[in-house]
């Protein structure tokens, strides 16, 4: 289940970015709901909010370490709550999606633009949702070994 969810996130992310590169890159922006939701082509050479610009190798190295750790965790731990495993699956899928962008293009393709927030992509969304779920599990459970919610 963990790998399937990671793969679904990765596939949705990469398909959306292929479409963005093919159809949106040349026009730059497409309003979906005017003044609320636009698809805006952005080449992000940093991390969230554009911080740490041009640190490609740092992000590649960190992604390999984090994803490697989570995969080892998947293989070793079977008793953690389902929300934790879902969270880590989302993080892995999103991290690999952005990793592929950095390796192939040298930047991450962002395109979801709500105008009041920095432009992001499906991988970013999965990572953030995964992080929120991790925090939820940490707050909800006294001991991560508990299986019931």
TrEMBL record:
Catalytic activity entry: Release of signal peptides from bacterial membrane prolipoproteins. Hydrolyzes -Xaa-Yaa-Zaa-|-(S,diacylglyceryl)Cys-, in which Xaa is hydrophobic (preferably Leu), and Yaa (Ala or Ser) and Zaa (Gly or Ala) have small, neutral side chains
Pathway, per record: Protein modification; lipoprotein biosynthesis (signal peptide cleavage)
Membrane-traversing stretches: 57-74, 86-104, 116-139
Keywords from the named record: Aspartyl protease, Cell membrane, Hydrolase, Membrane, Protease, Transmembrane, Transmembrane helix
GO cellular component assignments: plasma membrane
A GO molecular-function descriptor: aspartic-type endopeptidase activity
UniProt topology in membrane: Multi-pass membrane protein
Primary localization class, coarse: membrane
Subcellular location as annotated: Cell membrane
Enzyme nomenclature, EC number: 3.4.23.36
GO biological process: proteolysis
InterPro entries membership: Peptidase_A8
Active site feature: 110, 124
Purpose of the protein: This protein specifically catalyzes the removal of signal peptides from prolipoproteins.
Family indicated by similarity: Belongs to the peptidase A8 family.
Protein name, as recorded: Lipoprotein signal peptidase
């Amino acid at each position: 289940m963990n790998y399937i969810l990671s793969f679904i996130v990765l596939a949705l992310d990469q398909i959306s970015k292929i479409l963005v590169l093919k159809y949106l890159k040349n026009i730059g922006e497409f309003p979906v709901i005017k003044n609320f939701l636009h698809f805006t082509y952005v080449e992000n050479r940093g991390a969230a909010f554009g911080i740490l610009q041009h640190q490609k190798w740092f992000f590649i190295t960190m992604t390999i370490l984090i994803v490697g750790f989570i995969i080892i965790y998947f293989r070793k731990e079977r008793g953690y709550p389902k929300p934790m495993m879902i969270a880590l699956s989302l993080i892995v899928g999103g991290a690999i999606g952005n990793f592929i962008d950095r390796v192939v293009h040298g930047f991450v393709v962002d395109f979801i633009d709500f105008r009041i927030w920095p432009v992001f992509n499906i991988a970013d969304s999965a990572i953030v949702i995964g992080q929120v779920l991790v925090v939820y599990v940490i707050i909800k459970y006294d001991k991560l070994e508990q299986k019931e919610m």
